[in-house]
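Below is one protein, fold included:
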Amino acid sequence: MKTFIRNNGLSICFLLLFFASFAGQILFGFKEYNKDLIENGVTPITILSYFSTGHFVESTFENWESEFLQMALLVVLTIFLQQKGSSESKDFDKEEEVDREPSPNKKDAPWPVKKGGFILALYKHSLSIMLFLLFALSFVAHFYGSLKDENEQLSFKGMPPETASKYITDSRFWFESFQNWQSEFLSVFAIIVLSIYLRQIGSSQSKPVDAPHAETGE
């Protein structure tokens, strides 16, 4: 068990932080939703019923959507674009290990590398493909939840529901998306630029403390 925790400490830590934050979102989202129901003269619901509401689905997936988009773009754009001095950038002045062609003869190489052909071609881009796929799924789920929540709000007012074809151009849906996207892009910009001049000893996301500002890469 100690070996497992040591080998997976970073992922375990972030997974626990995710569950703790998610529990907080559910708890306070549930209270907020019931407060809204009471204000509209509607009977409050149970926490289990809350999971099927548009309020829960929309608030969950609008955030996941922006996270996956941010990571997908970072993975892809760092292939082609450079930021001199940043620990998040490749150094284009020297050969990078990540740019070399995979060798099926390398010890413990993943099975797609040994398989070759179409499987290898797909595997070479599997990280970006998966991140963009997760973004697309989250985007669809966000749209579904946002539309459902909008129609729930309209029903409280006795108004007819919105159709999906009309809601896709609605300002509320795109406001929800862009308010999250801009924060993710700002955070990536911050780590890219701040890592040029600032250091964190012991972190893989920082250059060595004594590295020159112009040194690019970790």
The CA atoms of residues 5 and 11 lie 9 Å apart. Residues 9-39 form the longest helix (31 residues).
